[in-house]
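Message: I would value a second opinion on how I read folds in token form. Give me a protein, with the fold worked out from its sequence. Write it directly below this note and I will take it from there.
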Amino acid sequence: MTGALLFDMDGTLIDSEPMWHDEMRVFARRHRIEWTAEDAHWTTGRPMVDWAERMRERGVTMDAASVIATVAGAVADLVRDEVPWLPGSLAMLERVAAAGIPAALITNASAANAHAVLEAAPEGALRFAVSADDVERSKPDPEPYALAIRRLGADASASIAFEDSGSGARSATAAGARLWFLTTQLTASPVPAERTIGTLAEVDPDELFAALG
């Protein structure tokens, strides 16, 4: 078996965190609960059920699944209208598709959000997505990355995961993947990373593909 490329979504390929934060505030105002900038920052990289339950604790009467579906659906619609690609992301995916490198999207977001990015990505770049709807335990549990590696038929120790959050970094390394950490949110990875980069624009695709062995 050979290695594969494993891409996180928010903060790695796209910058939709501001959209999430905006839609959470809209939702909170509609339901007359407090939702601060600190709350929004706390959600980054966490399983969606965590922030849905926090909203319920503050007075939202909807069940957690409905809270998630409402906010995630609004964000997915925004992404479909205009994908907020981060620097180098689209160009990298184009090279991945052209080279036929096995790659997948791994995210704590919903299937609707993941599919919005799959639809916008170059054809053949991302073979599938593993979203929160596909696993019992989201990041930081290793299940999402382990599932993606298994579905790709790849060798975990030869695969490279691109992540920007602490929970994502822990998930990827616990699944046995090599970590290339992006500093879009944190200045450094909370777990050892093979490389630390600012955005995918700093990565030479030829060097990356060679690193997969």
